[in-house]
Sequence to fold (297 residues):
Amino acid sequence: MSLNAKDKSLITGIWSKISSKAPELGAEALGRMLTVYPQTKTYFSHWADTSPGSAPVKKHGAVIMAAIGDAVTKMDDLVGGLSSLSELHAFKLRVDPANFKILAHNIHVTIAMYFPADFTAEVHLALDKFLQNLALALAERYR
Amino acid sequence: MVEWTDQERTLIANIFANLDYEDIVKPDVSCHHSLCLRCLIVYPWTQRYFGGFGNLYNADAIMNNPMISAHGVKILHGLDRAVKNMDDIKNAYATLSELHSEKLHVDPDNFRLLSDCLSIVIASKMGYDFTPDLQAAWQKFLTVVVFALGRQYH
Fold:
């Protein structure tokens, strides 16, 4: 389900809208994921605290959201643009790719909460497609 | 048998107490609250079940289709049955599950898609009140409903 011109325009639009709050949104989405889908905590057993609002969650949420923001600028070639991140996830982190979908859902929920008027059905559609493509690019080097 | 904590029961009951079904399905100008609309737009293959609903050609057509909003309310009232039977959702949904399998022929994956959309619509309505604990209880509830709806398929 590749991105058409309308999708790309909606994605750059919503991202510029949310970018000033990106670190906060990232922390919120990650914290939610760890709470609502506790199996995802297995990847963070090295953190003292996985609760929403904790220091490691805030820090890592910001990292993830910044990487997604960077991917927005590389929308025309996600596989190429995310190749080193894909290697990291494939060989070092070894995150089961099913979890990308879970995080994507929590990103949708968080943006819907913070920007309800902007997160229209069409923006939701475009973002869902983008995050799916991002997940595929991230899983590219897995096997 | 699903175990519900007292906190979960309260959280779920509170969501339903404050839920205005007509409002959730109503298509407003920015389309950010309407449930059925959102599902039919974000996952367009779900439109396959609504061939008899007239014009679904684009977002505007779907937005102005009264049959779609009416159907959204019907679906939400279906959730009432689960809230009233939280300790036995499996059996409370047995006939509904058969209906969806034998008569409506709905792929059960669609229940998951609709439940994800519902969580997102509720998040956009409640904003910061949709806390992580509330989301966890709500999604647990929807997971049980989705499972019960898919149970009679064979």
User: Anything to note?
Assistant: Chain B touches chain A through 26 residues (CB under 8 Å). Residues 6-153 of chain B form a domain with the Globin-like fold (CATH 1.10.490.10). Chain B has one domain: 6-153. Residues 7 and 137 of chain B are 9 Å apart (CA to CA).
